[in-house]
């Protein structure tokens, strides 16, 4: 990347969203090491292509698209692998302040449900954008998100 100003712009924009990127990856992958790896890979790719980003206001959706693609590839590697959230997640990730029960309920959702909810809540994608990224129908995305949130609510009440 050329130019000191571009480097400063990248750092400033990244600092505004790095926690959300990590949360998105952690909730999607349920593995701290993999989350750190995909965020690092996404940041490296974004940094390498930053000069091509014409509109700096598009940085957040742009970098989250890179991150969501990295998460999606990592999830494909998990196909036969199951992973539980560690009980000591709070102590391992002091910056993550979400309630343990919510994390457990979230962890019980399918990979696809976690990805859809993460894309909406942490990355700020609309259902239309999520549908485009995941190559699904927009109504399907809304239905799956609604059902997943209802499942979580039932788990939290039960």
Description:
This protein is mainly α. Helix content is 72%, strand content 0%. The N and C termini lie far apart (52 Å).
Helix/strand layout:
Layout: H1 4-29, H2 32-49, H3 59-77, H4 89-92, H5 100-107, H6 111-121, H7 127-134, H8 138-157
Q: How many domain modules?
A: 1
Largest sheet: none
Strand element count: 0
Overall geometric form: globular
User: Could you tell me the strand content as a percent range?
Assistant: under 5%
Mean pLDDT: 81
Give the C-alpha Rg. 16 Å
How helix-rich are the residues, as a percent range? over 70%
Number of H- or I-type helical stretches? 8
Keywords:
8 helices, mainly alpha, 158 residues
């Amino acid at each position: 990347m050329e130019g000191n100003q571009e480097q400063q712009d990248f750092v400033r924009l990244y600092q505004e969203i790095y926690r959300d990127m990590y949360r998105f990856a952690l909730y999607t992958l349920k593995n701290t090491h993999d989350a750190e790896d995909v965020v690092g890979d996404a940041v490296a790719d974004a940094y390498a292509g930053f000069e091509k980003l014409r509109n700096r206001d598009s940085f957040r959706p742009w970098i989250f698209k890179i991150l969501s693609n990295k998460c999606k590839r990592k999830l494909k590697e998990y196909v036969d692998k199951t992973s539980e959230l560690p009980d000591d997640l709070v102590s391992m990730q002091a910056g993550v302040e979400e309630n343990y029960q919510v994390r457990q309920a979230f962890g019980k959702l399918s990979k696809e449900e976690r990805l859809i909810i993460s894309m909406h809540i942490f990355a700020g994608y609309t259902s239309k954008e999520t549908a485009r990224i995941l190559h699904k129908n927009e109504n399907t995305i809304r239905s799956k998100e609604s059902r997943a949130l209802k499942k979580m609510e039932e788990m939290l009440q039960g």
